[in-house]
Amino acid sequence: MDVDLPRLRRTLGAPSLDRLVRRLARRIELGRPLTGSLVLDSPSADEIKALRSLLGSGRLRAAATVTVDLDRLSGVLADAGIATDLPAAVEALVGSITPREQVRATDRLAHEAMFATLATSRHAESGWYRQWTKSLDREGALTRMLRRGDTRLLAAAVAVLDTLPASGLPLPVVAERATGDTKALSSTPLATLVLRALAVRAGVPVPRGSEAERRLWESAGVLTDDLSSQVLVLGLHAEPGAPLAGWLTEAAHRRTPFRVTLHQLVTMPPVPKAAEVYVCENPSVLRAAVAEPPGAPLICTEGVPSAACHRLLEAVRNTGAAIRWRGDFDWTGLRTTTMAIDRYGAVPWRMTSDDYDTALGEGESEPLRGSPAASPWDPDLEQRLHATGRAVMEERLIPLLLADLTRE
Questions:
Q1: pTM, entire model
Q2: 249 and 203 in one domain?
């Protein structure tokens, strides 16, 4: 037997030697041998008495420090048949001790495996994906997953992200396709991790609350509720047919802003009737257009476009109508404009560096927030935003925007 545990507990395991045992355990953790000597500062009378009893040394006296001969201590335990060696005795008392360097090496290998998992994603070369992975490492999320034994969570997140962007898929369907569990994205740690990635992708803060989460899912084409997903429209006529087409046309005749749900767009798909359609980001622009003479149809994204907004824009694109797009002069506005160009062949609407300077000159602006984005249609715009560090909401350009909508 390597250790006679009952006798070990009565000797080295005595409460009065607890500080000595903890110091010895610390040495093992640091990868240092239990040989040579160990100095205990300010030993108590009980510690001196216990050491005398264990080592049989009358030379241990009360003093500012006491030096313990570890080789002698190990020999005493071995000769008495209590423990084959000192490290075995310490681990029998405190449990298995993994040297810190071994822990670090194991952690390094585990981190490398996690980064290898992240690198398998089809989004691995995307800027937003790289930014997300760096934030996971920088903020300690990978280490926390490692400590909790949640490394499979990361693989599941990669699987979910690889299904996105989706084309109007319900959340349970996305969850089942990626993980085999329809509830895997219903208020779970996996959902939190994926939403964090989608927030970076959309250039928005991590969502707080169900409404913000819904909009973020929709920005990736995932449906959580086809009734809550809506799009605001003004002046859009539609070909006669489905009931929704009649409602859109009637609202357009009355110059009435009209909210369309995703459910309506799916169950009663309209065929828009327009040569060109303008898209704005803020409802205040659409509201101002209500008081103007009838002009080009206007669709409002109300921030990051919802699934309903995308559905309607797809219908517009399918008719061959031109889509003229703008957003705020901020990083999110640049991202959504780039998305619209790529997805719908949209034409930027007053989204040039000159337009930005005009809006900035109107006076009211705010600090730029979030991660930077490119403006491939006008690289000078991105550079100007970097240079000024200011965001300008599209309300600054309302008179010009209204003039564009109503021009003949």
A1: 0.60
A2: no
